[in-house]
Specification:
The chain has 16 helices and 24 strands. The protein is α+β, with helices and mostly antiparallel strands. The chain folds into 3 domains: 176 residues, no CATH class; 80 residues, no CATH class; 272 residues, no CATH class. The strands form 9 sheets. The protein has a 5-stranded antiparallel beta sheet with strand order 18-19-20-21-22. A 4-stranded antiparallel beta sheet has the order 7-9-10-11. Strand 5 and strand 6 form a beta hairpin.
Amino acid sequence: MASPSWHSEIALGLTQFYTKLTQAPYLSPDSIQHPPPEGWSDEELDVDGLRTILRRSDAVVDFLRHLPYVKPVEERTQTGQSCIFPKTKAMRYLRDHSSLRQKDLEGLYELVNLPPDMVSLTHPAGEYTLYGPQWWLVDCKTGRITRYAGPPRGEALAEEFESEWKKAPTYAPFDFFQEVITMLGKDYYPVPGLVDGIEADFCTLDRREWTMMYQIYMLAGWQHGRGPGPYFDREKCGKDLEAFLRDQNERESRKRKAEMARHERRPCPTQANDSATYPEGYDRDVIAKGLTRYYETLSQMAYFPASLIQYPPGGCWGDDTFLPADKIKLLGFNERVVDLLRHLPYLDVDESHEDNCWSVNGRSEPQRYLEDNPMLNKELSADKATSESLYANGLFPFPEKIPDGLVPIAGREDGEWWIIDTNAGTVIIYDPDNKQVVDAPDDKPWLWTRPRPAGPFFDALVNSLYSLDLVPLPRPDTDIAECYPEVWGAIREDEEEDDEDDLDPEVEEAREIYRAHGWPDVAKFRRQECYDALVEHRTNLLEDGEGGYGPV
């Protein structure tokens, strides 16, 4: 019996897509494995995995016999697939290095629970972004392809995943591949893994490196939106990409080492705690006043306006403005935590910024425990209030259940988290990439760093703003979504620290801009002029390929 015509249409489209990836300095030209004329045999195709693991129908198995596949590549400790789309990898259904045999395959639960006549050409590989991960789902009854963008949800959110992919757009094979092939080299550029420490990836329009990637490809002869022109020099493009990535990697490594060195020299909490100034143990007012003073000092600098600070009316947020009781119950906060959150200041949503918020430490954003926060109110349901879901949505710092009495007040998945321990009156600085207490259990990340008494911690924050160890910078003049307002530098908690060897030129230039405009003399500080100069500084860094970022 002859195969449906859409079999060959999808095979051709997939071949053309993979071929374009080989024309860029990304996949090697010999990385595509083409099926024999009669299709992949039972010995070559992972038929057992398709039937026993995925429980796919005969129609799916027959379809997959006629597709090209990408050869596996070495990835750290295992062999796997390269990304073929932002945060998205190709599924390999051949028995040799089958994706179905891959340990901890992302999205396996979703792949298993698709209808038996559906199969995905891709699986997720990384956190959710505007462009990916993407699921390319083929209906082997109709030949239609569904393109759904979203992360794997697991068993707890299976119904949500199913309802969402069923709403996603579907395409005829020709239309689908015409769209995704055009996007390659137009909406995103392949970034090969040419430098240790930088994995193969795709640079999308919202990435800070977009301008440099675009220029490298164009100067090598790539035609934007179409592909390699007649004079495209693949070798030159690869060498220029490698040079840029190597420079970027060295710069980020230097910044990271400076931050780590500063962390390592910080004194133990007992050294910083002045018992004459702050009593031991938990004091709600010390935390509320400390955070308020930090926000107010930030607003005096070339950063967010003072009007964004929202103070609790009469010192305490009422039931009409605070999170509803049922949402608090879902979050699992005890009475002491709730009492603290009712007395904290919050930053209002900034409608003048596309990202609507200002970082308060590095790239970390403040949490907002008020009823107008949709993620913690209208969008929060019982199935989304699990530790794993709160972590996946960037609301909690880790997937483990947070201990009773602890509450995050600021954080971001790629930055530090501030966690208040209301049992001890301390602040925990959690960074998933900076485990300082080496013997702390891996499944108790709140123990990875030594807690700091809250009063001295907020004092150190404010003092670091005046000394410019912490340097707030507004967003550069750009449409790149990743360029947020940020606070560069690190807290200085020891007057004898000497960081001359750790000075980053980008951060030091920002400090000089502040000093040139009168800081730290608040009365003489020319705030708006400084603000404009810092925007220009970050914009110039971005245009020069520096990214406009401080130490991470």
